[in-house]
TrEMBL record:
Matches recorded under SUPFAM superfamilies: alpha/beta-Hydrolases (SSF53474)
InterPro entries xrefs: AB_hydrolase_fold, Lipase, Lipase_N, TAG_lipase
Protein name (Swiss-Prot/TrEMBL): Lipase domain-containing protein
GO cellular component: extracellular space
Any GO BP: lipid catabolic process
Segments for region (Disordered): 61-87
Chain ranges of the Lipase domain: 170-455
Provenance organism: Ignelater luminosus (Cucubano)
Pfam families on file: Lipase (PF00151)
Length: 474
């Protein structure tokens, strides 16, 4: 497929002039009468004149639509302000090679639904296609990735002894955004101003989610976790979008971790100062590389504003280049008042050994996770979500745990090296959201799961100990 180009000029930080509340979605035609092109922008309010100026000088590669993809018709402008969407935030093009490849994905109605079949955007929403395009990440295949990333991902997954060195020589500029979801705006987030996050309600619970390597906040499994939290709590759910830095070679992204964490910690300290709240009330959840970013954030927050984050949950935190490293370079139990970790791809990309106050090892004698493809079967046409199934399983387990207590684990002192539950001194502990205390003396837990949703088996997972299990849940 032939690439076409559109000249754009990214407008950055030219004062805080008042912007009109006009919602813009655009389909642009390439010059010289070439076929129409379409690429995703973050849905937001902008000033029309500024928007036109925005698309001028800088060149960005985009690809033409495949039949039936992209917006259903031409440019549309919605001048309403329904949904509580925040004015005044800048439009951002999805610039990385990975996110830009989303424009080739064909987006139908199914892409606008979660796994339960619930509509994520109203059918009549004129920006339905633009919104669903963000979820086209779920349809990416290995061949949609830049070749050097695809080759590396196969290598990392299929090689038992990986040779990898950090590459911190490439200059990085980190564009981190903070997206706020609430029950009032469950689908269309407010893009917070890090210097003045006034839309946060300090009276409500604050949950912050950091996505991982090669991922995005619009990944459906992250969205499902957000939805689960909003179902249970009337809360502030804040997604940290660092995707522009996340879509590079692993060893390059590794070097971005401290700097991204610094920006998050600066945001946390600002929230604490502005609302006079202690950071012990914050629950920080990090997936994959986001787990390691969360650990570094905890360290930096302690240095920067003299507080500890209340809880960090690591969802299969990255292991390569972090495992067996010094405690100040990786996620550890000193990074928050309580650190719990769910390990689902310890023999692939994840952190294998214990690194929190409480560590859970779902199906630790299975490789990969039940229901996931084996890495030897990776093909060019393999979906990225299938390739990273084991790593992403931690997201699914956490999402399920928010509204279920069936993810019941048993203490396993020898996990993950020997996956055998304790027999005489066993302790049963709910994994996920409701694991909020250190169940001494146990620190490692084993949990068998189903191979698809619902994953939790409750006490039925331990038939020989069913009655004991029911009477001894912590």
């Amino acid at each position: 497929m032939t690439n076409h180009k559109i000249d754009v000029n990214r407008r950055r930080g030219k004062g805080k002039e008042k912007v009109s509340k006009t919602l813009v979605n655009a389909e642009w035609k390439a010059p010289n009468g070439q076929p129409p092109t379409y690429f995703s922008i973050v849905r937001t309010y902008v000033n029309i004149a500024d928007f036109e100026q925005f698309f001028r000088d800088q060149t960005v590669d985009v690809k033409p639509n495949t039949p039936g993809c992209g917006p259903p018709s031409g440019p549309k402008v919605d001048k309403s302000t329904k949904g509580g969407r925040s004015p005044g935030v800048q439009v951002e093009v999805l610039p990385s090679p990975l996110t830009r490849s989303l424009t080739t994905a064909c987006v139908g109605d199914s892409a606008c639904k979660d796994t339960a079949g619930k509509e994520m955007w109203p059918v009549g929403d004129p920006f339905r296609s633009c919104s669903c395009l963000a979820h086209a990440y779920d349809g990416l295949t290995m061949q949609d990735l830049p070749e050097h990333i695809s080759v590396q991902l196969k290598y990392l997954l299929q090689t038992s002894i990986v040779k990898l060195e950090p590459n911190c020589t490439i200059p990085q500029t980190h564009n981190v955004k903070f997206l706020l979801y609430t029950r009032d705006i469950p689908d269309l987030p407010i893009i917070l101003d890090p210097s003045d996050p006034s839309q946060i309600n300090p009276e409500k619970k604050i949950v912050v989610v950091v996505h991982g390597w090669l991922s995005t906040p619009s990944f459906s499994k992250i969205i499902e976790m957000k939805n689960a939290y909003l179902k249970r709590y009337d809360a502030n759910i804040i997604m940290v979008d660092w995707s522009e830095s996340a879509h590079q070679l692993y060893e390059v992204v590794y070097c971005s971790v401290p700097e991204v964490a610094y920006l998050i910690s600066d945001f946390f300290c600002r929230v604490s100062d502005q609302f006079n709240i202690h950071l012990s009330s914050i629950h920080l959840i990090g997936h994959s590389m986001g787990g390691q970013i969360s650990g570094h954030t905890g360290k930096q927050v302690l240095k920067q504003c003299g507080m500890k984050i209340g809880r960090i949950t690591g969802l299969d935190p990255s292991g390569l280049l972090f495992e067996y490293g010094p405690a100040d370079k990786r996620l550890g139990e000193s990074d928050a008042e309580f650190v719990d970790v769910i390990h689902t791809s310890g023999l692939q990309l994840g952190y294998y050994i214990k690194c929190g106050h409480v560590d859970f090892h779902p199906n630790c004698h299975f490789y990969p996770q039940p229901g996931c493809m084996t890495v030897n079967n990776i093909r060019n046409e393999s979906l990225l979500t299938d390739v990273l199934c084991a790593e992403d399983r931690a997201l699914e387990l956490m999402a399920e745990s928010v509204n279920s207590k069936q993810l019941l684990a048993v203490s396993c002192s020898l996990c993950p090296r020997y996956c055998s539950q304790d027999i005489i001194t066993e302790i049963y502990q709910v994994m996920g959201e409701d694991c909020r205390a250190i169940p001494k003396p146990a620190k490692n837990f084993y949990i068998p799961t189903n191979d698809k949703y619902p994953y939790g088996q409750g006490c039925a997972a331990y038939p020989k100990w069913a009655e004991f299990c029911k009477n001894n849940q912590k």
